[in-house]
Specification:
By secondary structure, this protein is α/β, with parallel strands linked by helices. It has 5 helices and 5 strands.
Length: 154
């Protein structure tokens, strides 16, 4: 995963940075959750995923790379966060690595209206009422005909 060097988790020669070893383990554990969801994803159509409160987007990048690059799923992933500088940096990295269907936006979960349908909502370590808003949006977008899968790993 070449983006991990730019995110500071690995060195340019592919070694895990000692101070980021826990982050590296978290990324790998998160991808195990994603692996569990694969049988429910449709490889014949684009899957839209939103990561609410994506922050520096270690997990968002890993999820995109795993699903799109390694597993060949047609995905569109959106990262949403309140930190404008972090969002700008994530978009620069996404462009650098040619991740065409991975975009980051500045915004609040409660008021985000950028899509009308999603297939999966991801939120990790959301603060205060952010998790409540993320779950409400997931239900709103999912409806009865298209259940939304929500990953909320501890």
């Amino acid at each position: 995963m070449p983006f991990l060097a730019d995110l500071g988790v690995m060195t340019q020669d592919g070694k895990v940075v000692r101070a980021k070893y826990d982050k590296f383990r978290q990324i790998n554990r998160f991808l195990e959750f994603i692996e569990d969801v694969l049988p429910k994803l449709d490889k014949t159509r684009e899957t839209t995923i939103i990561d609410f409160g994506c922050g520096k987007s270690y997990l968002t990048f890993a999820m995109y790379y795993y699903l799109k690059e390694l597993k060949g799923y047609p995905v569109r992933i959106i990262g949403l966060d309140l930190k404008k500088d972090v969002i700008a940096h994530c978009n620069q990295l996404s462009e650098k690595f040619g991740f065409e269907n991975l975009r980051f936006y500045h915004g609040d979960i409660a008021t985000y209206e950028g899509v009308t349908h999603v297939d999966m909502v991801v939120t990790l370590h959301a603060c205060d009422t952010a998790t409540d808003y993320a779950l409400a949006k997931a239900v709103q977008w999912g409806g009865e005909r298209n259940p939304v899968r929500s990953l909320l790993p501890a």
